[in-house]
Amino acid sequence: MSTNEERREAAKRKLEERLEREHQAARKRKIVIGSVSGVVVVAIVAVATYFIVDKIQTDRFNAAHVTCDYTKVPSRFDQINTEVPEQITDPAQRKLYQEQIDKLLAGKGKQKTSPEPDATQAKDGTSTLTVDTTQGVIPIELNRSGAPCNTGAVISLADNKYYDGTTCHRMTTAELKVLQCGDPTGTGAGGPGWTSPDEPPTNLKSAGDANPMTGQQPVIYPRGTVAIANSGQAQQGESNSGGAAQFFVMIQDSTLPASYAVVGHVEPAGMEIVDKVFKGGINPGLTTNQTTGAIEPATSDGTPKLPVTINSATVS
């Protein structure tokens, strides 16, 4: 049998062994906890870095872009009065009025639509719009800086072939000299099914006093300027003037209200084509006399005698 001394020595060894095992286990737990803590710290730093970088990139994107409020609109052809008003009794006037109705109804069947542009458009940047017409190629430099929403709309329309096969349906030859294009119906009443927000120019030279009724300042649109035609509602204080696809080219410096978004300018080679068309003259259209209300020939407003059909309009 073991002596008491031997039993005490055995118990002491067991205690020492147990304490050593517990000490080793405690050391392992510290190492694991320390490693996990390091991973957690690294993960937190990585997540924080991701959100910081993402915010910087988002802020930069937002600073370089603008949100455009393109608005769906019904066809103007749905509002056409298809009969000569009874109050027009003069035979000659009834005939002229009927001619206008017939022209609009003929154009109604040529309507085209196009998808709305992306609501987010870049504020800056230039592109070349190559307008290949039956009279020659008209290169246009588009510049987003003055009207990013309207410029983006023109690019979208060209990309969707909206302008292909359309005519430049209007030319004016009086004090205001412009060539107007972009309406598939050839009537001035067509549109893609939506309008662009107003972006009045802010960098054109002022000309004369502001309109006392609207407060609008007339400005000079230089020769070669490409601007977006509209319904003129902005001149009556409306917030959306209805501009979208139709654009006009300034044949010479002209004074207009600052309500037409400028999207670019025609290159010199293109202005040679525009000048050729202008020299060809116009086929006078019809207009309404603002004083008498009578319909009469428009001696300085009509269609170009040299027909201008857009074969294609491409952006590069």
TrEMBL record:
PANTHER family: PEPTIDYL-PROLYL CIS-TRANS ISOMERASE B-RELATED, PEPTIDYL-PROLYL CIS-TRANS ISOMERASE-RELATED. Keywords: Isomerase, Membrane, Transmembrane, Transmembrane helix. It comes from the Bacteria. This is Peptidylprolyl isomerase. PPIases accelerate the folding of proteins. It catalyzes the cis-trans isomerization of proline imidic peptide bonds in oligopeptides. Residues 136-315 form the PPIase cyclophilin-type domain. GO terms for molecular function: peptidyl-prolyl cis-trans isomerase activity. Pfam families: Pro_isomerase. The lineage of its organism: Bacteria, Bacillati, Actinomycetota, Actinomycetes, Mycobacteriales. The chain crosses the membrane at residues 31-53. InterPro entries: Cyclophilin-like_dom_sf (IPR029000), Cyclophilin-type_PPIase_dom (IPR002130), Cyclophilin_A-like (IPR044666). PROSITE patterns: CSA_PPIASE_2. Residues 106-130, 184-218, 292-316 are annotated as: Disordered.
